[in-house]
Amino acid sequence: MQSSSRLTVDITVIHNNLKKLVTAFDQVMVMVKANAYGTDPVLLYKYLHLDKWKNIPFIGVSHVWEGICLREAGITTPIFVISAPPYEAETVVIHQLTAAVSTLEEVEALNAAGKKHAKMLPVHLHLNTGMNRFGTTFNEGKILYDAIQKATHLHLEGIMTHFAAADLPSFDAFTLSQIEQFKAFLDSLPTLPRWIHAANSGGAVRFPLPFCNLVRIGLGLMGYGVCLEGVEPALRLSTKLASICEREKGESVSYNRSYTLTQGKEKIGVIPVGYHDGFHRSLSGKGYVLIREKKAPMIGLVCMDFMMINLTHIPEAQVGDEVTLFGKDLSPEKISQWGNTDVRELLVSLPDRVQRHWIHPAHFMHSIMHSIRNEHDTDPERLPNSLFPFEKDQASR
Questions:
Q1: Over 117-156, what HEC string results?
Q2: Known catalytic membership, residue 255
Q3: CA dihedral over 26, 66, 52, 122, signed as positive or negative
Q4: Tell me: the pLDDT tens digits for 273-306?
Q5: What is the pLDDT of residues 322-362, one digit of tens each?
Q6: Taking the CA atoms of the chain, what radius of gyration do you get in angstroms?
């Protein structure tokens, strides 16, 4: 039996969003990290037929193990990995992943692994311009560039940086300084690789980057954050009303007696969503859900598996009624503001027990039924030999 809580994913909306993004930015890396922003990276990939989009040269993840999961699902599209520590170098080569590199140790480990397995490996040099998470400095980046060029089993396929606050106008001066640093580094190099990328969804929308030819799109694909005009929200979280009771003035509700009735008799509802389901305690008593198109305030501390709501002004509410936690009329961004967090955190916190329900045209379903999670596609040797069809040498600028 499935949970009564479900995240509804409208694949038609996501498909239309992707078309708008590709039209606007031409070459797009679709980021499917963190379970594809709380959905499912494999199903998203196959429903959208990402292998057939000529304008999508990569799909992107954060960790090597995420790339392995995609490979084991039979996905052969180039997979870009933000972080590939030296101790994972051999795994990167075996599964033919495309790694960002920030240090000489990473370059040396990947080159050694490539030599061991007789494979040429594409890498993207990561320049740190202010995110201060990964990336090399300007001067060390020149050394790293030369090291990659000299490496016998590495191919410099791209150069990247990562904006720290491109979504926020209050930090525009900082973002512009990152852009200037990145452009200066590119201008200092004798040749440039095939791909130059810096922007996430918000950065691509808000800043012109004519010297870049690839954007990394994740949250924008779902219709959230700073978006292009016409991009629409694609997700809805719902559950069912599990219980109703009446309590008297002076009684308290939830842990630590965190809500006390002060206005006389009240009607209290319980829904089977708590902080294990992504609705963290920081939301306690701060927002509402929708029942029968009416607002039902959250009351008391959010529990691990349940949350209480006030139904006093919705007397027609009944056990089993559908409850909307976010969707078209109540955005997840508003929920995240109530909890003093970010919409990304809310989406990726949804656990497996929240069932995913995909809305899609019939032809999408028909075309993928034979290939979803095929256990026979897990062997790295099944990857095509031409997955990285490039030459070592580059043309001068």
A1: CCCCEEEEEEECCCCCCCCECHHHHHHHHHHHHHCCCEEE
A2: yes
A3: positive
A4: 999 999 999 999 999 999 999 999 999 999 999 9
A5: 999 999 999 999 999 999 999 999 999 999 999 999 998 66
A6: 24
pLDDT at 386: 45
Q: Please confirm, yes or no, whether 224 is among the known catalytic residues.
A: no
Say if residues 197 and 214 touch (Cβ distance below 8 Å).
yes
pLDDT computed for residue 366 by the predictor: 47
Active-site residue, from 87, 116, 249, 255: 255
* Contact between 51 and 42 (Cβ < 8 Å): no
> Interior CA angle at 109 toward 103 and 110, to 5°?
95
Both tokens of residue 19? 């078309």
Catalytic entry in 33, 145, 259, 275? 33
Structural domains in the chain, CATH included, are 11-223+376-382 (3.20.20.10), 235-330 (2.40.37.10)
What pTM was computed for the model?
A: 0.88
Angstrom distance (rounded) from CA 37 to CA 21: 17
Q: What is the DSSP string of 71-128?
A: HHTT--S-EEES---GGGHHHHHHTT-EEEE-SHHHHHHHHHHHHHTT--EEEEEEB-
- Long-range pairs of 261-265 with CB within 8 A, sequence gap ≥ 24: 265/312
Cβ atoms of 95 and 81 within 8 Å: the answer is: no
